[in-house]
């Protein structure tokens, strides 16, 4: 092909023409690409020139082309279309040639073309998606499996060492190495009596959660004190077995017989709570910290056994102020707790700030005591005197009467623990303030902002014990 033809065609296909109008450059380029060196029709160069001639709407962008010698041979038509579509040209779309005499190809504007940088961007995005998918479905590193298995084995070993302890209905257990213990109370599921084996009962889950925190969780576990669960006979055997596999010492207690005056309609929902009094039979311990099952720890509670309020106290009088049918008192005792809180309160709370409805009224959901059969008998004697205390919240009102202030005639007044150890009706402000434990239902806290914190502990517990079960 001669330079004259190429030069002639170049006047139609220059850079400026391509940028200004997208319809004229392609035909002659592909014609040249496809037919260089081929013997073709001697008029083909004229045909190419005709194809590249500007239309009336675009004539102003072009100068008239010089004549091209007929000796130059270039082919056009269907072969030109095939050559273009198989080439590496940057155009993205070309009109289909329906007839051999179609005059031009059409090219989309440059903004709609997929250039090299766009292809690179698309490939990068696809690569990122593939890598994310691989990461999401790939197994955890082996080191995580090793750590998980090690933790589970330790938990299973602990459980195996404790699960074999015998159950008993009174204090008939061998004395553990520690002289201190933590204890809670679990009654039957009164909300679902037809499904007593339900392992998702809220109070049962709360008991397991408390055990997990005291026995296993690094942030809250005790250094040496065991975790004891006083279970009534109404608790299903599956639940008892599960708690024992968790590592708790489960004591199935004998039922405390209630006098007739405590069996009325007003006390019908609280019949089992007096079984808590079996706690004072565990005389193998010097001190026991008792809390209701709906308690969640924020940090270890071992320090409570050094609180000044748990020091041994001497009974003020050996006969009670009221005297009738209340029996004799022990010469010494330990009973320390915290007053009932207002729902809205400060932290730390104080009587001066109005944080207590009655600073002399004990909340029996958290206290420290010294087990004593003499003290237990004193409680039983009080129960036999009709109307000695209110039947609503019966065990709490019994303890409040037995350990009432000296000013009210009491011989064994309860002493107040530091406010740092526990908070009833806790708030997020109490939690941030550093209180050691929260007396609140994990499934329905009054302060709903605590729900994420409390539920996260629940699922940590579930995961830990599930791992334990896999390695039993």
Helix content: 25-40%
Shape call = elongated
| Overall domain count | 2
What name does CATH use for the topology of the largest domain?
Spore Coat Polysaccharide Biosynthesis Protein SpsA, Chain A
Structural class: alpha/beta
How much is the average pLDDT?
75
CATH class division of the largest domain? Alpha Beta
Rg on CA atoms, Å = 44 Å
Report, as a whole number of angstroms, the end-to-end distance.
87 Å
CATH homologous superfamily descriptor of the largest domain: Spore Coat Polysaccharide Biosynthesis Protein SpsA, Chain A
Largest sheet: 7 strands, mixed
Q: Order of helices and strands, N to C?
A: HHHHHHHEHEHEEEEEEEHHEEHEH
Percent range for β-strand residues? 5-15%
* Model regions low in confidence, pLDDT < 50 over at least 5 residues: 1-112, 138-148, 158-175
Under the CATH scheme, which architecture of the largest domain would be assigned? Alpha-Beta Complex
Give the strand tally. 12
Short précis:
This protein is α/β, with parallel strands linked by helices and 472 residues long. Helix content is 33%, strand content 10%.
Q: How would you describe this protein?
A:
Strand 11 (423-424), helix 12 and strand 12 (437-439) form a beta-alpha-beta unit. With 472 residues, the chain is α/β, with parallel strands linked by helices. Strands 3-2-1-4-9-8-10 form a seven-stranded mixed beta sheet, sandwiched between helices. The protein has a three-stranded mixed beta sheet with strand order 5-12-11. It is elongated. It has 13 helices and twelve strands. It has two domains: 3-107, no CATH class; 146-470, Spore Coat Polysaccharide Biosynthesis Protein SpsA, Chain A, CATH 3.90.550.
């Amino acid at each position: 092909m001669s330079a004259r033809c190429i030069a002639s065609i170049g006047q139609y296909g220059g850079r400026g023409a391509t940028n200004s109008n997208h319809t004229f450059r392609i035909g002659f380029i592909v014609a040249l690409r496809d037919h260089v060196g081929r013997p073709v029709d001697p008029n083909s160069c004229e045909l190419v020139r005709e194809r590249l001639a500007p239309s009336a709407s675009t004539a102003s962008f072009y100068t008239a082309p010089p004549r091209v010698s007929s000796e130059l041979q270039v082919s056009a038509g269907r072969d030109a279309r095939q050559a273009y579509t198989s080439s590496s040209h940057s155009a993205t779309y070309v009109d289909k040639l329906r007839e051999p005499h179609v005059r031009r190809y059409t090219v989309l504007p440059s903004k709609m073309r997929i250039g090299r940088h766009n292809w690179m961007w698309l490939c990068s995005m696809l690569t990122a998606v593939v890598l994310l998918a691989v990461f999401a479905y790939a197994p955890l590193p082996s080191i995580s499996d090793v750590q998980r298995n090690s933790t589970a084995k330790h938990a299973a070993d602990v459980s195996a060492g404790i699960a074999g302890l015998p159950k008993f209905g009174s204090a008939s257990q061998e004395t553990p190495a520690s002289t201190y213990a933590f204890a809670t109370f679990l009654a039957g599921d009164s909300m679902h009596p037809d499904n007593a084996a339900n392992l998702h009962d809220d109070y049962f889950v709360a008991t397991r959660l408390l055990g997990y925190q005291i026995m296993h969780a690094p942030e809250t576990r005790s250094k040496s004190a065991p975790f004891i669960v006083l279970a009534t006979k109404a608790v299903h055997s599956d639940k008892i077995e599960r708690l024992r596999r968790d590592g708790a010492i489960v004591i199935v207690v004998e039922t405390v017989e209630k006098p007739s005056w405590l069996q009325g309609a007003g006390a019908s929902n609280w019949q089992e709570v007096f079984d808590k009094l079996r706690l004072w039979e565990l005389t193998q311990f010097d001190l026991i910290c008792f809390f209701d099952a709906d308690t969640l720890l924020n940090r270890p509670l071992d320090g409570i056994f050094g609180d000044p309020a748990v020091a041994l106290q001497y009974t003020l009088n050996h006969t009670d102020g009221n005297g009738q049918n209340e029996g004799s008192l022990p010469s010494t005792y330990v009973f320390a707790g915290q007053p009932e809180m207002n729902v809205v309160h400060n932290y730390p709370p104080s009587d001066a700030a109005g944080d207590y409805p009655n600073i002399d009224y004990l909340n029996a959901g958290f206290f420290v005591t010294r087990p004593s059969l003499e003290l237990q008998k004193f409680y039983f004697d009080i129960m036999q005197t009709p109307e000695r205390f209110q039947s609503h919240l019966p065990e709490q009102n019994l303890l409040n009467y037995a350990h009432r202030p000296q000013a009210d005639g009491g011989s064994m007044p309860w002493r107040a623990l530091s406010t740092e150890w526990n908070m009833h009706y806790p708030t997020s402000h109490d939690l941030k303030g550093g209180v050691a434990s929260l007396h609140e239902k994990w499934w329905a806290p009054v302060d709903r902002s605590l729900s994420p914190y409390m539920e996260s502990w629940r699922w940590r517990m579930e995961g830990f014990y599930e791992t334990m079960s896999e390695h039993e």
